[in-house]
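Continuing from the previous page of notes. For each protein in this section, the sequence appears first, followed by its structure tokens. Read the first protein now.
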Amino acid sequence: MSSSPEIAIFASGCFWGTEHIFVKHFPPSKGILKTTVGYTGGKESSTNPDYRTVCSGATQHAEAVRIEFDPKIVAYEDLVEFFYRTHDPTTVDRQGPDVGTRALIIPPYRRSRPSELILVSPEYRSAIFTTTPEQATIAQRVTEEVQAKHFTPNVSPSLSRRILSAVLPYRYPQGKTIVTTIQAAGPWWDAEEYHQLYLFNNPGGYQCPTHRLHW
């Protein structure tokens, strides 16, 4: 008897690369049945967003991928671990050269206009949008495990280089902290058709360099 498909939603920068790396490593035979890229996690008042308004930062939505998967083939926790494995979850509102959110008020002495403001988009944040309480529990647990295993805590400078080389074997700098947000999934809007499976339809198109296997 077949199981009912479940939904996982992840945001890890430009959704072209997020979707591409998941589909590449989890074809239907390995559990992912369908993916859709879109917008979620924005202001309640911002409905039916499009790419342009999301990029403006006005809606506060994240670019995300909605994954339909077969839990009999791939476990949700494995998808969460893969999510962390394929981007940098320690940077706020950005992935590599793709810079997202923050409203930056320029100090008066540097302004060319009295009320000059720079607003960039939050679309590239790292986030997990859970669809059940069980997913929330799993996501939190896996996050803590990944933090402990792959993002090492600060250590005493008195430790020898030999000891440091043993306890700090990972690629990420010492003392990094995961800043990924975990929240219940809210309204979802599909992105425009040309964004769907973009890197499969446009081989050689832009892919954020952080979307790779980090371990």
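Done with the first. The second protein uses the same format. Note its length before scrolling.
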Amino acid sequence: MAPTATKVELKPTGERVVLEPVEPAKTSAGGIILPDTAQEKTQEGVIIAVGPGRKTDKGEVIPVDLKVGDKVIYSKYSGSEIKLDGTEYLIISEKDVLAVVKR
């Protein structure tokens, strides 16, 4: 599923981000159609919202080092999956983002 414009505005708190997972491939590299049970859970998504950041013990806010539109790789079983208006989203902590994909 490609990222879409959302009707629902999601504003994460703290150092969390909201992302829209990229749909996994439905066919193998050799062209074999994979049933849902054989497909790997995706670990790639596009960030659609970013929280304000983490607060230090002194009350200072350290901003999240990610931005809306970043394509990222994240930990396999991280975050909370939600579905709003028929679209699936994942809310994860910044620390669960492993890499930003640059193309």
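What the second structure shows: The chain has a mean pLDDT of 85. Residues 26 and 80 are 24 Å apart (CA to CA). We return to this in next week's lecture.
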